[in-house]
Design brief:
Subcellular location: Plastid
InterPro entries: Ycf2_N (IPR056777)
GO molecular function, one term: ATP binding
Protein name: Ycf2 N-terminal domain-containing protein
Oligomer: single chain
Main location: plastid
Low-confidence stretches: none
Structural class: mainly alpha
Number of strands: 0
Strand content: under 5%
Helix content: over 70%
Radius of gyration: 44 Å
Shape: rod-shaped
Amino acid sequence: MANSSEKLCLPQRNLISEISSKSLHNLLLSEEMIHRNNESSLISTHLRSPNVREVLYSILFLLLVAGYIVRTHLLFVSRAYSELQTEFEKIKSLMIPSYMIELRKLLDRYPTSEQNSFWLKNLF
Protein backbone atom coordinates (compact mmCIF):
# COMPACT_ATOMS: atom_id res chain seq x y z
CA MET A 1 0.00 0.00 0.00
CA ALA A 2 2.75 2.39 0.82
CA ASN A 3 4.23 1.56 -2.51
CA SER A 4 1.07 2.35 -4.46
CA SER A 5 0.49 5.57 -2.54
CA GLU A 6 4.07 6.64 -3.33
CA LYS A 7 3.35 5.95 -7.01
CA LEU A 8 0.24 8.11 -6.81
CA CYS A 9 2.13 10.87 -4.99
CA LEU A 10 4.96 10.95 -7.52
CA PRO A 11 2.87 12.28 -10.44
CA GLN A 12 1.17 14.70 -8.07
CA ARG A 13 4.57 15.92 -6.86
CA ASN A 14 5.74 16.35 -10.43
CA LEU A 15 2.55 18.21 -11.25
CA ILE A 16 2.89 20.40 -8.15
CA SER A 17 6.55 21.16 -8.86
CA GLU A 18 5.73 21.93 -12.49
CA ILE A 19 2.90 24.26 -11.48
CA SER A 20 5.03 25.94 -8.83
CA SER A 21 7.93 26.43 -11.25
CA LYS A 22 5.57 27.92 -13.86
CA SER A 23 4.04 30.16 -11.21
CA LEU A 24 7.46 31.27 -10.03
CA HIS A 25 8.49 31.95 -13.62
CA ASN A 26 5.31 33.96 -14.26
CA LEU A 27 5.80 35.85 -11.02
CA LEU A 28 9.36 36.77 -11.98
CA LEU A 29 8.23 37.85 -15.45
CA SER A 30 5.43 39.98 -14.05
CA GLU A 31 7.82 41.56 -11.54
CA GLU A 32 10.24 42.37 -14.33
CA MET A 33 7.44 43.90 -16.42
CA ILE A 34 6.23 45.98 -13.47
CA HIS A 35 9.78 47.16 -12.82
CA ARG A 36 10.23 48.12 -16.48
CA ASN A 37 6.90 49.95 -16.56
CA ASN A 38 7.74 51.84 -13.39
CA GLU A 39 11.13 52.86 -14.78
CA SER A 40 9.68 54.11 -18.04
CA SER A 41 6.87 55.95 -16.28
CA LEU A 42 9.39 57.53 -13.90
CA ILE A 43 11.52 58.60 -16.83
CA SER A 44 8.57 60.00 -18.75
CA THR A 45 7.22 61.89 -15.74
CA HIS A 46 10.72 63.14 -14.99
CA LEU A 47 11.04 64.47 -18.54
CA ARG A 48 7.57 65.98 -18.34
CA SER A 49 8.33 68.04 -15.28
CA PRO A 50 8.44 71.79 -15.97
CA ASN A 51 11.94 72.28 -14.54
CA VAL A 52 13.49 69.75 -16.90
CA ARG A 53 11.70 71.28 -19.87
CA GLU A 54 12.91 74.73 -18.87
CA VAL A 55 16.48 73.46 -18.69
CA LEU A 56 16.20 71.77 -22.08
CA TYR A 57 14.70 74.90 -23.65
CA SER A 58 17.43 77.02 -22.05
CA ILE A 59 20.11 74.76 -23.49
CA LEU A 60 18.47 74.93 -26.92
CA PHE A 61 18.26 78.73 -26.70
CA LEU A 62 21.92 79.01 -25.68
CA LEU A 63 22.95 76.76 -28.57
CA LEU A 64 21.00 78.94 -31.00
CA VAL A 65 22.58 82.12 -29.63
CA ALA A 66 26.07 80.58 -29.77
CA GLY A 67 25.45 79.48 -33.37
CA TYR A 68 24.33 82.98 -34.33
CA ILE A 69 27.42 84.54 -32.72
CA VAL A 70 29.76 82.08 -34.44
CA ARG A 71 28.04 82.70 -37.80
CA THR A 72 28.35 86.49 -37.39
CA HIS A 73 32.03 86.27 -36.53
CA LEU A 74 32.69 83.96 -39.46
CA LEU A 75 31.02 86.45 -41.80
CA PHE A 76 33.12 89.27 -40.34
CA VAL A 77 36.34 87.26 -40.74
CA SER A 78 35.51 86.29 -44.32
CA ARG A 79 34.79 89.93 -45.25
CA ALA A 80 38.02 91.11 -43.62
CA TYR A 81 39.92 88.35 -45.41
CA SER A 82 38.53 89.33 -48.81
CA GLU A 83 39.36 93.01 -48.19
CA LEU A 84 42.90 92.12 -47.15
CA GLN A 85 43.26 89.92 -50.19
CA THR A 86 42.32 92.79 -52.53
CA GLU A 87 44.75 95.10 -50.70
CA PHE A 88 47.55 92.57 -51.07
CA GLU A 89 46.76 92.25 -54.76
CA LYS A 90 47.14 96.04 -55.11
CA ILE A 91 50.46 95.97 -53.24
CA LYS A 92 51.62 93.01 -55.29
CA SER A 93 51.05 94.99 -58.49
CA LEU A 94 53.26 97.76 -57.07
CA MET A 95 56.08 95.29 -56.57
CA ILE A 96 56.58 94.82 -60.32
CA PRO A 97 60.12 96.10 -61.11
CA SER A 98 59.00 98.76 -63.59
CA TYR A 99 56.61 100.21 -61.01
CA MET A 100 59.36 100.15 -58.39
CA ILE A 101 61.59 102.19 -60.69
CA GLU A 102 58.80 104.73 -61.26
CA LEU A 103 58.13 104.92 -57.52
CA ARG A 104 61.81 105.54 -56.81
CA LYS A 105 61.85 108.36 -59.39
CA LEU A 106 58.81 109.93 -57.75
CA LEU A 107 60.41 109.70 -54.32
CA ASP A 108 63.59 111.28 -55.60
CA ARG A 109 61.65 114.08 -57.18
CA TYR A 110 59.31 114.65 -54.21
CA PRO A 111 61.07 113.73 -50.98
CA THR A 112 58.88 112.87 -48.03
CA SER A 113 59.24 113.92 -44.43
CA GLU A 114 61.03 111.58 -41.99
CA GLN A 115 57.85 110.68 -40.13
CA ASN A 116 56.04 109.39 -43.20
CA SER A 117 58.99 107.79 -44.97
CA PHE A 118 59.62 104.94 -42.52
CA TRP A 119 57.57 102.41 -44.48
CA LEU A 120 59.01 103.64 -47.79
CA LYS A 121 62.59 103.05 -46.59
CA ASN A 122 61.68 99.51 -45.63
CA LEU A 123 60.12 98.98 -49.05
CA PHE A 124 63.46 99.35 -50.85
